[in-house]
Amino acid sequence: YGQYIQSWGQSHNTPLVWRFLKEKSGSGVLGDLGSHLIDLTRFILGAEFRKACAHARTYIDRRKIPGTEEYGTVDVDDFTHFLAELDGDISGTFAVSRYGYARGNYQRVEIYGDRGAVIYNLEDTDIIQVCIGDVYKEARAFIQLPVPGRFRVSQMQSFFDIVNGKGDGLAATIEDGAISQMVIDGLIESFEKEKWVRF
User: Fold this and answer.
1) For residue 79, what is the enclosing H or E element?
2) What is the helix (H) or strand (E) element at residue 193, kind and residue range?
3) What are the phi and psi torsion angles at 58 (to 5°)?
4) How many CB atoms lie within 10 A of CB 191?
5) 10-residue mean pLDDT series, the chain (199 residues)
6) Cβ–Cβ contacts within 10 Å for residue 67, how many?
7) Are 117 and 100 a contacting pair, CB within 8 Å?
8) Which is nearest to 199 in space by CA: 78, 51, 76?
């Protein structure tokens, strides 16, 4: 289960910036925030998307053009929800939106397996929640664990390491970007044609 929710698009006063124009952005919140969930899911699970079904909508379809009193048309999605099947019969449910009341940059991933569960929340960057073992399972109890120092990274430091040829080998590649775009394109086809798509 994955969510990436922000609230900045919720206001009718937010102008018609490039993120609301398909010609400049390619897609809406699906490409903006959904791309991160798609990439993160592939990275964490080591599995590829096989098929999916999406639903999307634009809540505010007209916004003021910056620097004018005129309005232009929003032609991209403001929210997208999708169901997906990945390699290994993994089932996923995902939601991305710019309309999450009071959310700044809320990203959450929950993974449930037959031997345990883990929850990651971007707002709690130094901890993860886990439930592993029969005692915790029976109590339905998640415990918070600090992320060990060796697994904490600075995004900017990682970027500079890659630029300087000292990457750790875990960074996304051009191929990862192409695969994420393929999934995004398929999801757009799914919500436009109201059908399941296969990758």
Assistant:
1) strand 79-86
2) helix 174-193
3) -110, 120
4) 20
5) 95 95 95 96 95 96 96 96 97 96 95 94 90 91 90 81 84 91 97 97
6) 7
7) no
8) 51
Let me know: does 187 contact 34? Beta carbons within 8 Å. Answer: yes
Tokens found for residue 77: 């999605």
Amino acid at 114: D
Structure tokens at 112: 């449930």
Placement of tokens 């394109």 in the chain: 185
Nearest to 31 by CA among 18, 49, 44: 18
What residues have CB less than 8 Å from 134, skipping those under 6 apart?
Answer: none
Residue 151: strand, helix, or coil: helix
Q: Which amino acid is at 80?
A: T
CA dihedral 33, 155, 44, 31 (to 10 degrees): 20
* pTM, entire model: 0.90
Counted residue by residue, the chain has a size of 199
Decide: 54 and 199 in contact? Cβ < 8 Å.
no
What tokens appear for 193 in the block?
A: 């044609």
CB 131 within 8 A of CB 137: yes
- Alpha carbons 31 and 80: distance in angstroms, whole number: 10
What's the order of all strands across the beta sheet hosting 116-121? 143-146, 127-132, 116-121, 106-112, 2-5, 90-97, 79-86, 49-57, 197-198
- Whether the Cβ atoms of residue 112 and residue 73 lie closer than 8 Å to each other: no
